[in-house]
Amino acid sequence: MGAKHWIALVALAVGVAAGWWFGAHTGTDRSTPPVKAKKDGPCPAGAVPTHWRAPMDPTYIRDKPGKSPMGMDLVAVCPGEAQAPDGVVRIDPALVQSMGVRTVPVARRDLARKVRTVGRVAYDERLVDHVHTKVQGWVERLFVEYEGELVRQGQPLLEIYSPELVSTQEELLLAKRYRDATQGSRYGDVSQGGKDLFEATRRRLELWDVSHNDIERLLRTGEIRKTLILYASTEGVVTRLLVRDGMEVGPNDNLYTIADLSKVWLFADVYEYELPWVREGQKALIELSYLPGRTFAGKVTYIYLSLDPKTRTARVRVELENPELVLKPDMFADVTIETEARPGVLAVPEEAVIRSGRRALVVAVGEAGHFSPREVALGLDSGDGWVEVRSGLAEAEQVVTSGQFLIDSESKLQEAIQKMLPAAQPQQGQRPTAASTQGSGSMQPGLHEGMDGEGGPMQPETHTEMDGHGGHVMPGMDKRHQAGHAMSGCDGHAAHDGHDMSGADSVCATR
Fold first, then answer.
1. 345 and 299 Cβ atoms separated by less than 8 Å
2. Measured at the alpha carbon of residue 49, what is the angle toward residues 47 and 55, in degrees to the nearest 5?
3. Backbone torsions φ then ψ of 298, nearest 5 degrees
4. Measuring CA to CA, which of 191, 301, 412, 503 is 20 to 30 A from 222?
5. What are phi and psi of 96, to 5 degrees?
6. Does the predicted model carry a pTM greater than 0.85?
7. Residues 449-465: tens digit of each pLDDT
8. Which domains does the chain have, with CATH numbers?
């Protein structure tokens, strides 16, 4: 290799060495760059910050400027920002805007609710008749032979042969002849006895449901009929037929069940939380799926006093006129009950309420970016986005309707940070002690007790791997890393404030 090549290599090596020496001696320490402050300091009027926190992780706090685990400059928290009344959280207006917080005033309004449910059409139980015979006999003939047949009032249903009926007709004819024979008697008791016997026998036939026309025909013609015809006492549809030709029947046998469908009931299932809105006499609108566009109007006539244990619903009875017989029993229908409006109710939007299961909270807006959670007692729910507030808020107060969960989280976070801060600020130049870093009160759930590597306040456990291990010698490190993490200082053991340093004196003495 020639002399020129050797000269070029030597010049290159000298240049690299010079550049390295210049950068090492003139560059700034990039690990802990100074925090830029305002002319009067990071806080107004030169106030001393209470602590420093990471901008992206408020749980990462320090007692002096520095870098966060994400490499960002720590943000100073000034005394005015850290102090707030009990139960009140202060949030920077810029952060409030970024969270999309929206507010509405608490106002009085008329609350009304339309209870929408489903129902089932049923017979009007007051218009259901059972047909019985009052004499013992046998069915000779059926005039109505199947269920579902529509019958008119006075229409013949069946014909019954009864020996008892035949003998009573004969007694009536004998009583008639005796009455006629004793009518001109000079003894008043005899003539009156003939009349009484005739009336008693006739009355017996009437009580057996023998019609007036049949009795008159018997007296006029003297012809005895061995059968009795039973007639429908009402108009309706036969829902049950329990008799056939030739069967023996008696007074205890139900022969027909006839239901009048000119009026029907509808049983609507209403959930228990909607029952406070429902009252007797309210209007109900009925819609059928197979008749779109047609609405039937009814009225709530009764609210049953028990609930279905499986569905947790109460039955509400609605009465409907059904002249065209369009509504048929066991039909399903959509029901809308128009309830009465509650005037002048203090109400807030439903979205403003935070329900925890044991209580209900709203976030009230104060002055200068202050927010406070309020426990409220709720009343009626209108079902259209408004809920009654019985206590806990006053009219014209502002409540948060969007972003309240973030504010609630922020309030709990600030409470946890305050509990992690020292109970008393250390003097200038003095490091916090273990007693001063414990704070007051219990730790917020989810935050773990512990000390960072600089003797600072207690930190969440999630940052222990990112904070530099606080001077501990970590297994697996080489000698250069162990030297960088060796325990510094034996006077007070500042690098391990709060830890049990048993044997530290002997170590220092050995050193």
1. no
2. 135
3. -140, -170
4. 191
5. -60, -45
6. no
7. 333 434 344 444 444 34
8. 102-112+343-402 (2.40.420.20), 114-124+260-341 (2.40.30.170), 127-255 (no CATH)
